[in-house]
Here is the input.
Amino acid sequence: MEQVPEDWQRGLVIVAHPDDIEYGAAAAVARWTGQGKDIRYTLVTSGEAGMAGVAPAEAKLLREAEEIASAKVVGVHEVEFLGHPDGRVEENLALRRDLAAAIRRHRPELVVLFNFGDNWAPGFANSADHRAVGRAGLDAISDAGNEWIFPELSDLAPWSPRWAAVVGPTVTHAVDVTDTLDQAAASLAEHRRYLEILSPEPVADQVRAVIDMATGPQEGFPAAHAVGFELYYFRS
Here is the structure.
C-alpha cells in the first residue's frame, strides 16, 4: 500500500452534499492543510432535502452554514455550492460542465472525489447523487483540460490536474491521519443539527463511530489510522 503523493500544493474536494467530506476525508484534508497546502471544497448541492421535518429553504441555509464552519476546522476557507437539486442530481453534460468550470477556477493538482460505485459494501446501496457526482467529476477532470469540449467556458483557461483520489471501497493508496483525528471529529461535529435529526444517538457517539470507521488501518500501510483512496493518474 503506497502513500498518496504529497508533492503538490493545491487540492479540490468535489462532493454531492454537506457532510460527505466529514464522513470520509476530513482527516486527510486536515493533514494536508497542516502541511501548508491550499484545499478548497466544491459541493454540487446544499443538502437541502436531507433533513426530515425541515423545509428545503431552511435546510439549505443551515447545511451550508454547517459545512462552512466544518471546513474551517480543518483549515479550508473556500467553499462553494453549485446549486444542483439535492436528491435529483443527474450525471449529464451540464454537471460535467459545471465541474470542469470549478476545476478550471481552482486549478488543483489533486482532485478528491467520493465513491461513485453502486454500493458502499455488499448489500448497502450508494446514493444516486454520489454516483452521479463521482462519475461526472472523473470525466470533468479530462474535460477541464480540453479547450474544445465546453467552448462556452473559454473565459476560464484549460487546466489539467495530475491525480484524482477517490474515497471508496477500492483502496490503492493511503494517508496517515494519526495526528489529525481530533480535527476530523471536531469538523464532523459542526454538522450538529443535521446529526441530531439523523439519529437519536448523541452527536458525540455518532462522531466517534464515523471517525473510527473512516480512519481505520489499511492493509499493507504502516499507520494505525489512515484514510484510503483509489488513485487515478492524469498527467506527469
User: Anything to note?
Assistant: The mean pLDDT is 96. The radius of gyration is 17 Å.
